[in-house]
Amino acid sequence: MAAALIKLSDLPIGSSATVRSFPPQDPAFIRLREMGLLVGTTVTLVRTAPLGDPLEIKLRGYRLTLRKSDAAHVQVEPTP
Amino acid sequence: MAPPPHLSAPARAPTYALVGNPNCGKSTLFNALTGLKQKVGNYPGVTVEKKIGTTYSQHGQPITVIDLPGAYSLAARSPDEAVTRDVLLGRRSDTPPPDRILCIVDATNLERNLYLVHQILDLGRPVILVLNMMDLAAQAGLNVRVARLEKELGLPVIPCEAVTGKGLMELRLTMSRSDLPLARHAWNVPTPIAPAVSELASSLVEHDHKLPLTARAEALLLLTDQDSVRVAGSSPLSPRTTEILQGWQQRWAAEGTDWAGTLVNSRYDAIGELAAEVVQRVGVAGPSTSDRIDAVVTHPVWGWLVLGGVMTLLFVSIFTLAQGPMDWIGDHMAMLADGVKAQMPPGDLRGLITDGAIGGVGSIVTFLPQILILFCFIGLLESTGYMARAAFIMDRLMSRVGLNGKSFIPLLSSYACAIPGIMATRTIEDHKDRLVTILVAPLMSCSARLPVYLLMIAALLPGDLMPLGAKVGLMLLMYALGTLGAFGFAWFFKRTLLKGAPPMMIMELPPYRLPGLRDVALQMLERSWIFLRRAGTVILAISIVLWFLAAYPKAPDGATPTQQLAQSFAGQAGHLIEPVIRPLGFDWQIGIGLISSFAAREVFVSTLGVVFNAETTNDNTAPLRTALLAARWPDGRRLFTPLVCVTLMIFYVFAMQCMSTIAVVKRETNGWKWPLFQTLYMTGTAWILSFIFYQAGTALGF
Description:
The complex is a heterodimer of chains A (80) and B (702).
Chain A (H helix, E strand, L loop, with lengths): L5 E2 L8 E6 L5 H8 L7 E7 L6 E5 L2 E5 L1 H4 L3 E4 L2
Antiparallel strand pairs in A: 1-6, 2-3, 2-6, 3-4, 4-5
Chain B lengths: L15 E5 L5 H9 L3 E5 L6 E8 L5 E6 L11 H10 L11 E7 L3 H12 L5 E6 L1 H6 L2 E3 L1 H8 L3 E3 L8 H8 L18 H15 L6 H10 L3 H5 L6 H17 L3 H20 E3 L7 H9 L4 H20 L1 H21 L4 H18 L2 H17 L1 H14 L8 H6 L4 H6 L7 H10 L9 H11 L7 H28 L10 E3 L8 H35 L9 H7 L1 H13 L6 H9 L6 H9 L10 H9 L11 H13 L4 H11 L3 H27 L3
Parallel strand pairs in B: 1-4, 1-5, 5-6, 6-8
Antiparallel strand pairs in B: 2-3, 3-4, 7-9
Helix pairs in contact in B: 3-11, 7-8, 7-10, 13-16, 14-15, 15-23, 16-23, 20-22, 21-29, 22-29, 23-30, 25-26, 26-27, 29-31, 30-31
C-alpha cells in the first residue's frame, strides 16, 4: 500500500498507473469521473501533444485528453 | 422492481428519443432509420439542432424518432447535453417527453457508454439498447454476449452495424412492439445517500411540481451537479427542496462524505460488474490501426506536416473548386437580371427586381459553393476523428489566448468565409469560449476581402513599378494583421468581458473511422439550408434597402449611373459620413464604397466602378485603376495616394462590413446584442487604427 504517489501529469509516457485520489467534491472533476476516471481505475499515459500539453491517456479501452494543469490534481500510483 | 401496470401499450404509435454518447454512431443510425424523412430545426432559445424523423414499423406504421444531441452524462456541461437532459425529463415545452428511449452504445467502449444508459434507466421509461459497431468490437478482440446483457438488464438489446444497416430490421421490429418491458434496474443508491434521494424526490414532486416518474432521476442529478438552478431547469428550486438539499450537504461535508463522487463510483461499480459478465476478451489485440495512424498524426514533427497538409488541401480546394461554380452563379444571376430587363419596361419595379432582389439573392448564393465545400470538409474532419486531433495539437497554442483547441477549426475556416466558421463553433461546449470565438472569427481575413486588397495594391503605384515581392508581402501583412487582431481580441475578451474560470478541457479522442459519406452529405446540405433560410431572409431585406438607398431620390432623366449614385441617398450618406472618415484620408466617394460593402466586401470594387465611371469586370480592373489614379480632392490633391490605399486596406482588415456574417451571428447568439457589439468594436478598431496610421503617415510626409 505504501507505494509512492505521483501526479498524473508526472507519469512517464507509455507507463500505466492506478488512480488513488481526486480533489474531494470539486465540481470540475465530476465530469472526469463520469468519463470513467475513478479511484482504482488503471490509466496509461499514451503521449503528449506535439507542444508538450495536453496529455493523451487511455482508460477503459478509450482515449481521453486533458491538460497537464488539470491532471496535476490527480494522484496516481505507478504500476511497477 | 416490477413494471407499473399503467405502462401498457399506448393507443398511438409511441415517440422514441434516440440518445447516446458522442462518436458512437448515433447520427448514422438516425439517418439509416429515417432516411430523408427528417425535419431539422432549432430548439427555441438555444443554438442546438433539433432533428425529428419518421421511420416505419414492419406494418408500415409511422414511428416518430427524435435525435437528441450526443451526451456523456445527464449532468449536462454543454448546451447540447442540457437539451438532451431537458427533453428526457420533460422540461421543454416545445418538445413533449418521449414515450420510449432508444439508447445507442459503442460496443468497443461499453463501460463508459453504459454510464449514460445507467442514468437513463432511472427515468422509468421503456428502453431499447442498440449495441453498435459489433464488427469493430470483434476486430478488437471483444466478445459481447448479447443474450447475457439482455438478461441482466431485462430490456431488448439489438446488436447492430449502423454503417452497413445490419440489425436495422430487428431494431424496427422491436420498436414496433407494443409490450416493451421496463428494465430491471437493480441499482441501489449507496447507503449514506439513499435517504436523501428519497426525501429530495418527494419534495421535488410536492414543492417543485416535478413528474413523479422522473423525480428520483431529478434528485440524483441535483446531487451530482453543484449548480442546482442549472439542474432544476430555468426555475429556481423551491425553498423547501433547497433547505433539504443544503441540510444533507452540510451533514455529508461534516462526515467527510464525497456524495457526488460516491454516486458516480457506485454507478461504475454496477457497470463494472455487468461488463465483467458480458464482455469477454477473446484475443489480445495488438496496436490498432488507430494507434498506428496516431503515431504519425500526433507526432511532434509529422503531426505538424499532416495538419499543414490538411489545411493546405482545404484552402486549395476552396479556391480552385469554388471559383467555377461561383463564376457560374454570378454569370447566371447577371443573365437572369438581363432577361428581366429585356422583358420589362424600365422603371422602379424593374430596378427593384433586378438590382434589389436578384442582386441580393445573388450575393447570398454566390457564397454557397465556398460554404458547401467548407461544411463538407468540416463534416469529413469530424466523422473521421481528425477534428479532435487538430484540437489536441493546437490546444497549447490556443490556450495562450485563453481559448482551447476546439476554436482552431472555426477560426481557420474563417480565412475562407466567416459564416461556416461561426456555424462550426457549435462544437465548442463552453458558452464563453464559443462567444469569444464568434466575436473574433470575422477578423480572420476572408476571401471577400481579397478583391479589395488586390485593387488597392494595384492602385498603390502607377504602372507596374512595384516589385511582385512587395505586393505579396503587403498582402501577407494584411492577413497577419487580421490574425494578430483576432488573437489579441480573444485574449482581451477572455480577460475582461467574458472573464471566468476556464472550464476543464476534457475531450475524447475517438478511434479513426472511415467517413460515412451519406451522413457527411446530409449534414452539409442541412447546414447550408439553415444558412440560406435563416440568414437569407435578413440578407435579402438588407439588399433591398441598399438598392433603395442607391436608386432614390431619382436623378433627372438622362443622368448617367455615376450622377444617379452621386445624388442618391447612398451618395448623400457618403457626404454625411465624410466628416467621420476624412481624418482617415477618405472622401465621400470612398464613403459610398464603404457603405455598399455591407452587401459583401467585394462589392466595394464594383461600386467604385460606378462612382468613378469606369467600366470594370471582375477579371479586369485596369480602367478602374486608371480612374482611381485620376481621382482628385476638390482642391486638386490626389485622392488615392499610396498612404490612403494602405489605410483603406487596414480599414478592411478590421471593419465589420458583412451583413451575412451579422445575420449568422444574430442567429447563433440568439439576439441582436452580440452582432451589434461585434459591429461596433470591429468598426471602431478599424477607424482608430486607420486614423493612427494615416495621421502618422501624413506627419511623416507620405
